[in-house]
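TASK: fixed-backbone design
INPUT:
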């Protein structure tokens, strides 16, 4: 069914069942992986840029607890929403196109991916002391970058050893991008 036929059917009140083609499923998966990597890289940079100091006795300055969670969740969800709006809603509208169901699915997957990164990155804040949470919260999205790299390599038929190398390479590049972003933002 074409987009025009789908739109006409939905306007008539008889929305047809929508099944994603294998090409559309692949696009949705790519968008999920891309958003996971994107949010992870930005979180590494953002968390590295937060000023903090650690003192004797476990006293810390900088974002901790709820503030740290707000930074993680606000960044992740804000990035996903901005990305969806810019690339799936605004850009097609400027071309005179209407958003499709696929655009909606992709937006939901992007938000879900961002929520996944935020949820996993929140674990140190929820489980550790303020000092350990500050020290490890930025490591979680970095690890996600490496794990995603490993899984991509395995999904494309690479051996475990090659996938580990690929994951470490992606992790290194992701952290390097985040550190460059942090360094440039500091000036």
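OUTPUT:
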């Amino acid at each position: 069914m074409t987009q025009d036929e789908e739109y006409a059917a939905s306007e008539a009140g008889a929305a047809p069942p929508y099944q994603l083609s294998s090409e559309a499923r692949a696009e949705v998966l790519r968008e999920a992986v891309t958003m996971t990597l994107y949010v992870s890289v930005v979180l590494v940079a953002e968390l590295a840029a937060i000023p903090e100091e650690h003192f004797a006795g476990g006293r810390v300055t900088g974002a901790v607890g709820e503030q740290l969670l707000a930074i993680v969740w606000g960044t992740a969800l804000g990035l996903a929403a901005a990305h969806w709006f810019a690339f799936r809603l605004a850009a097609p509208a400027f071309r005179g196109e209407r958003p499709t169901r696929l655009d909606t699915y992709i937006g939901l997957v992007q938000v879900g991916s961002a929520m996944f990164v935020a949820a996993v990155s929140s674990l140190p804040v929820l489980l550790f002391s303020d000092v350990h949470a500050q020290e490890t919260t930025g490591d979680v999205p970095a690890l996600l970058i490496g794990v995603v790299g490993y899984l991509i390599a395995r999904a494309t038929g690479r051996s475990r050893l090659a996938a580990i190398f690929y994951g470490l390479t992606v992790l290194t590049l992701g952290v390097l991008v985040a550190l460059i972003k942090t360094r440039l933002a500091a000036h």
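COMMENT: The chain has one domain: 20-185.
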